[in-house]
Amino acid sequence: MRLTILGGGGFRVPLVYRSLFAEPGSPGAVKELVLYDTDHQRLSVIACVLAAQAHSAPGAPIVRIAQSLDDALRGADFVFSAIRMGGMAGRVRDERIPLTEGVLGQETVGAGGVLYGLRILPEAVNIAERVRVVAPDAWVINFTNPAGMVTEAMHRVLGQRVIGICDSPVGLVRRAARAAGADPDTVGYDYVGLNHLGWLRRLESGGRDLLPQLLDDEAALASFEEGRLFGPQWLRTLGSIPNEYLHYYYFTREAIEAVRSAETTRGEFLERQQAEFFRRAAAEPANAPELWERTRLEREVTYGAASRAASGGWERDAEDLEGGGYDRVALALMRAIAHDERATLILNVPNAGTVGVLDADAVVEVPCAVDADGVRPLPVAAPDAHQAGLMLSVKAVERATIEAAQTGSRTAALRAMATHPLVDSVAVAARILDRAGIK
């Protein structure tokens, strides 16, 4: 089986490769990993890290560097799309421009997410079109943010053969299960939302919902990230546990102040950190694996620093520093399809009637059954009025962004920016677009 990674020079690629070692000799295992990236220096460094990983893992998949997009896609069984148009410099702009107007600057949420969507969507659609021509039988697993928006745009080209993933929901379920004293691998759950906008509403073990008891236990809530992030009072008020990204919606002022008072934005930190890693690893290829691991750990330790600062300041738990959330979800998805092993995963897929307030083609983030026939969203409880309202509002923003990216319409871009719940003024929205050069 052949796996292609678009954005093969991405920092997280070694996590994916490491995960492939778990079943090197099993039927249907990945035999060849094909990497493609327009940044050849980054690609050569990552290839060096993979070579070191393979040295200690007999039977590891062969790694091949593709020379073009079509070369990368041809013959692929699965395609992981993990691209970043504009690099980290683009992310820095997406974060800093909104902050100059006093609104949140974040890679996937609010004004920053709209700006990134406008830049990334044309290339994501181009990839989908090339997959349809060159590798029509391949399954595309979309890592590219904003994942829900990008998956919906690609779905219009590829239909059911594109699936979006994110590690935030599965991380939330596992942390909540541990806090409730349950086995994370066996709990049932009810989760509904859009990418980076979802809620855990039920956590079941032994036929019993553990969530009410967990919400009443302040010590248990204080033992995991989302409990500390939102606080017991607000979680009990909601009656659910939100995805970590909803902190930007529920504590907007505090989040903006934390980001503005930090020495750097997250994008600026990663831009500097990754530039240093790739520079040193290119100069010292023998040390590339050690440099990568050290950089990866620093990246995980500092993840969510602004939100943690805004909620009282606390350190991430050791089990959350392992990384690899995306690759674990993606590999589980790939195994279920390739080996016809039924799995239940929270994924970004077309609604198909699962959430009644949204139309069938709207991409939602819900639990899904996965097997050789693909992915089917499972029934979930209807969202309450608050959840439905936010989902409808943000879905309208996503679709206006897709329209603007496809047509070049400034009107659609302004509608996307100005109607986002985290942008508080039409005039501010227009100035953000102007500063970003969107005419």
Describe the structure.
The protein has 439 residues and is of the alpha/beta class. The protein is 51% helix and 15% strand. It has 20 helices and 13 strands. The chain has helices at 13-20, 40-55, 69-73, 87-100, 110-134, 147-158, 168-179, 211-215, 218-221, 225-230, 232-238, 247-250, 252-261, 266-283, 288-302, 305-310, 325-339, 385-407, 410-418, 426-435, and strands at 2-6, 32-36, 62-65, 78-81, 139-142, 162-164, 188-194, 197-205, 208-209, 241-242, 343-350, 363-371, 374-377. It has a six-stranded parallel β-sheet, with helices on both faces. Helix 1 packs parallel to helix 2 and helix 4 (87-100) packs antiparallel against helix 14. The protein is globular and about 50 Å long. The chain starts with a strand and ends with a helix.
List the helices and strands and how they pair.
Elements: E1 2-6, H1 13-20, E2 32-36, H2 40-55, E3 62-65, H3 69-73, E4 78-81, H4 87-100, H5 110-134, E5 139-142, H6 147-158, E6 162-164, H7 168-179, E7 188-194, E8 197-205, E9 208-209, H8 211-215, H9 218-221, H10 225-230, H11 232-238, E10 241-242, H12 247-250, H13 252-261, H14 266-283, H15 288-302, H16 305-310, H17 325-339, E11 343-350, E12 363-371, E13 374-377, H18 385-407, H19 410-418, H20 426-435
Parallel strand pairs: 1-2, 1-4, 2-3, 4-5, 5-6
Antiparallel strand pairs: 7-8, 8-9, 8-10, 11-12, 12-13
Helix pairs in contact: 1-2, 1-17, 4-5, 4-14, 5-6, 5-18, 6-18, 14-15, 18-19, 19-20
